[in-house]
Specification:
- The chain is mainly β and 219 residues long.
- The chain has one domain.
- The protein is built from one helix and twelve strands; from the N terminus they run ββββββαββββββ.
- Strands 3, 4, 6, 9, 10 and 12 form a six-stranded antiparallel β-sheet that branches.
- β7 and β8 form a beta hairpin.
- The longest helix has 10 residues.
- The radius of gyration is 27 Å and the shape is elongated.
- It starts with a strand and ends with a strand.
Length: 219
């Protein structure tokens, strides 16, 4: 038997026809070139007076749980529950804030009644803390003020923690590395309400969660 110079073919040296397999070599798709952007991701949800159901953020980038459409001021997510191809994100930490104009009593009630949970996937929370330990990041400073009327109305903006760049919840690994989120990995934030919110009759407060880190986007 004579070995041929190409794979999969041989002959017995007499009358047997040559047989073999033909291979087609394709060109693999090019890997996208991603640019690192120092841009956080954010998403908002509404908390209503008397609410007991868990509020979920980063679940729907189109609308709030009550059906109200989300605007660019409410989220910069381009897909629901994931980044979408070819985006990637190095998650460093979180900040949380209530909408400016929230009264002191509403602010206190939300922070005292809510547990912050972070999920990769659907089942086991990777982070679970009381909201009182979730900083607000850069924000205004100062004491609570009123408008000076006989029946004063609060006219303050309240911040949880000092309004400085380093005021965030550090979510890096024990060796201080960011947590990489791939383009198709599911994630979301739950705000578990331990007692019915007391925000005032008919009141609704918008809250936002910020994911701090590096967004890798295609050139």
């Amino acid at each position: 038997m004579q070995a041929l110079a190409y794979m999969g073919q041989a002959t017995n040296g007499q009358t047997q026809a040559q047989t073999g397999i033909q291979y087609v070599v394709g060109t693999p798709p090019q890997t996208p070139v991603l640019r690192p952007l120092r841009q956080p991701l954010y998403d908002a949800e509404h908390l209503a007076n008397g609410q007991t159901l868990t509020a979920q953020l980063f679940i729907d980038n189109k609308k709030f749980a009550d059906g109200t459409p989300k605007l660019e001021c409410d989220t910069n997510m381009t897909q629901s529950s994931q980044l979408g191809y070819p985006l990637e994100f190095d998650l460093v930490g979180f900040v949380f804030e209530t909408d400016y104009g929230t009264t002191r009593s509403q602010f206190n009630n939300i922070y005292d009644s809510v547990v912050f949970k972070w999920f990769f996937g659907q089942n086991v929370p990777w982070l679970r803390i009381r909201l009182t330990k979730m900083p607000q990041g850069i924000g205004p400073q100062g004491s609570v003020s009123t408008d000076g009327n006989a029946s004063p109305v609060e006219a303050s903006i309240i911040s949880n923690g000092w309004g400085v760049v380093t005021n965030f919840f550090n979510f890096t690994t024990p060796d201080r590395k960011a947590r990489r989120i791939s383009s198709t990995e599911a994630f979301h934030n739950d705000l578990t309400i331990c007692a019915a919110l007391s925000l005032g009759s008919g009141a609704v407060v918008k809250v936002l969660t910020w994911m701090l880190g590096i967004l890798y986007a295609q050139l």
